[in-house]
Amino acid sequence: MTTTSTETTAFPEGGYRYAKGVFQYSAGVAALPGFAIERVRFQQAVPLADGFDAIAAHLRAIGRPLTALCACELRSPAPFSERGFHDFNRIYAGTLERWQLLRGDHNPVARTNVCPRVGAPATPAFQAFSYTVPADDDAGPPSFVVSGGGEAPDGHASYREVMVRLGDTSPDGLRAKLGYVMTEMERRLAVLDFGWRDAAAVQAYTVHDIGALVFDEIVQRGALTTGLTWHLARPPIVDMEVEMDLRCARREIALLWP
Hints:
By secondary structure, the protein is α+β, with helices and mostly antiparallel strands.
């Protein structure tokens, strides 16, 4: 690994650079020159172990190494306790380590993990994944993925201790939570040298009615030109209420498995 700036680190084995996050995921990734990010969405969520097998098979079929994996989108049955989240992350990160994606406490792979209100899987599962391919830099826009983030900063001993307006799902509470999450998305975009106008897809995840907040807190603040996809889903940790992620993939495809 080589540092490309004070903000991101190159992962040449994968063809991308990443913004440092925590052991279970980076804050986001962007394709290195000569590469582009593609995204695959499973038609139905695939259980975690099978999902990794499907990813390996897809990368092998297109002639890309396992280290090309740069982002994972997971779905879980219900929010985890903080201990349960930690234990799950160790299992998840174990596969990344076997695939030689981890370097000590550095994890380059971006991630979103949310819990659908309707149609939740029975066990943690893959909904989508992204990877890099060699590409002409002039053939399309620069590609990136910003990891999902909720209303609490990563890296603390307890999420509950630092959650914005813990337990407050009033309109004012949701506005404060959403405002925090938007600020964090802006920070991650800036670290990757992008802005809102570069985002081709913007997702919000919450089971609460944020309809009255969408224009002021998301659309207008982010100057969104591509709209917003709102998923009725919870963040992966008990008592967290709002999450968002962003991306611009060069190509997106759907995959049936098996």
